[in-house]
Amino acid sequence: MTIEIIRCLQDNYAYLVHDAATGDTTLIDAPEAAPILARLAERGWRLARIYITHHHNDHIDAVPEIVAATGAKVWGAKADAHRLPPLDHAFAPGDTLPGGAEVLDAPGHTLGHVAFHYPALKALFSADSLMTHGCGRLFEGTAEQMFATIARFNALPAETRVLSGHDYARANLAFAARYAPDASALAVRQADLPRLAQEALPTTGTTLESERLLNPYLRCHLPEVAAAAGLAGADPLSVFTAIRRQKDNA
Ligand SMILES: [Zn+2]
């Protein structure tokens, strides 16, 4: 099985998961039809289905056009069905979907947000929850919910790749640098990101192992991170809440 990363709109990522043995192909999120349809045509793949992470326009707007062009079936969270495009299949956290995706509850950015974990691919499609070197803004959920979401993800194997919904890596890394990240991991990534930008390569797909060194939201239990947030001695949730608020005001 392989993953194709597709740049959409200004800074969104959509993903194709393709099984070469069966020809089965799934799209994760539908920000923009043209680049997604172009990639399918280029590869000669037939799209079987679309999995939706959450209801924001920049993740669902292209669903009707892609369905019209491909006949793909639409899958989304039952809890959010009222604000998603018409669903052919509704799922709930805990379900396992075709292709081997496990649906993980991921509230915080929105209340109905889900993530898709493919154990066989060692991949977590986290959209706007856990992101490269950061996490999504809290539009609907609480810091406590996002904290629990990220803690749930952090229990996955260290080599799991985090494939998020946006290319915010550069801004997130600049912010993460304030919170005592691992110095050598920071230096490597600071050198790498400009090269990725120059070569128009994706910034998404870092491992949990690397995020544990850089991403402040995975490091709230560390005394040096609490101190950097101005909350020496505070509990991890308080540190998490403070860092997320500091990001909103950054
Ligand atoms: Zn969103």
Automatic annotation (TrEMBL):
Catalytic class of the enzyme: hydrolase
UniProt keyword terms in alphabetical order: Hydrolase, Metal-binding, Zinc
InterPro entries, alphabetized: Clx_II_MBL, Glyoxalase_II_hydrolase, HAGH_C, Hydroxyacylglutathione_Hdrlase, Metallo-B-lactamas, RibonucZ/Hydroxyglut_hydro
Molecular functions (GO terms): hydroxyacylglutathione hydrolase activity; metal ion binding
CDD domains xref list: hydroxyacylglutathione_hydrolase_MBL-fold
Domain Metallo-beta-lactamase: 11-166
Gene3D superfamilies membership: Ribonuclease Z/Hydroxyacylglutathione hydrolase-like (3.60.15.10)
Names of required cofactors: Zn(2+)
Pfam family membership, one: HAGH_C
Chain residues that bind Zn(2+) 2: 58-59, 128, 166
UniProt binding sites for Zn(2+) 1: 54, 56, 109, 128
One GO process term, biological-process aspect: methylglyoxal catabolic process to D-lactate via S-lactoyl-glutathione
Enzyme Commission designation: 3.1.2.6
Cofactor note: Binds 2 Zn(2+) ions per subunit.
Pathway noted in the entry: Secondary metabolite metabolism; methylglyoxal degradation; (R)-lactate from methylglyoxal: step 2/2
Catalytic reaction equation(s): an S-(2-hydroxyacyl)glutathione + H2O = a 2-hydroxy carboxylate + glutathione + H(+)
Assembly and interaction partners: Monomer.
Function: Thiolesterase that catalyzes the hydrolysis of S-D-lactoyl-glutathione to form glutathione and D-lactic acid.
Similarity comment: Belongs to the metallo-beta-lactamase superfamily. Glyoxalase II family.
PANTHER family referenced in this protein's UniProt entry, alphabetically: HYDROXYACYLGLUTATHIONE HYDROLASE, HYDROXYACYLGLUTATHIONE HYDROLASE GLOB
HAMAP family reported in the protein's UniProt record: Glyoxalase_2
Protein name per the record: Hydroxyacylglutathione hydrolase
Organism the protein comes from: Pararhodobacter aggregans
Taxonomic lineage: Bacteria, Pseudomonadati, Pseudomonadota, Alphaproteobacteria, Rhodobacterales
Gene expressing this chain: gloB
